[in-house]
Amino acid sequence: MKLGVLFSGGKDSTYAAWLAKKEGHKLACLITxxxxxxxxxxxxxxxxxxxxxxxxxxxxxxxxxETEGIKEKELKDLEAVISRAKKEYKIEGxxxxxLHSDYQASRIQKICxxxxxxxxxxxxxxxxxxxxNELIKNKFKAIIIGVSAYPLSASWxxxxxxxxxxxxxxxxxxxxxxxxxxxxxxxxxxxxDCPLFVRPLKVRGADFxxxxxxxxxxxxVE
Length: 222
Prior knowledge:
Elements (H helix, E strand, L loop, with lengths): L1 E5 L4 H12 L3 E10 L15 H8 L3 E6 L5 H17 L3 E3 L6 H14 L2 E3 L7 H10 L3 E8 L14 H14 L10 E7 L9 E9 L2 E8 L1
Parallel strand pairs: 1-2, 1-4, 2-3, 4-5
Antiparallel strand pairs: 6-7, 6-9, 8-9
């Protein structure tokens, strides 16, 4: 199928796109929403503008939209952009990076039903521990650019998702029950390299903001 990718620049949407391509689907476009609400229920926000750089090294067109990030209303904004993708790129479906979030999956499915296109969820109900190890095995280099759950702190920003990261987040999961893949918003990531990229991206600068256990990193990449 000819598919659009709901793309945040993070590990989940990027890995889902790669899996879909491996299954023989065509990645027709990337779809990114810029939310004014840093606590959006639906959308990743740290360094979201840098999806443009990722699209360049993937060689895939990027469609962007804006939303205030108001709960439920933001879904209408998403539907409008997906509708554009259907018209401009003739997509037959949408790829999502949803793992276990019924909130996200059910709402995106409803949009797809309205537009009469397929909803493809390559990561749905994948074991999160296996998933993180698959990222490393398949040469995905992702860094942490946002944290928002105790006991995570600013010291986690910039960390690469590697074996030591998995070890540390597994220990935290055992004590505090945070989702080890961060699907509850505990942390957010940005992919610097993967098999979909023609070359890796490099971080050339970063601005940090936040307090206590809620921090974000706005990066510059080249």
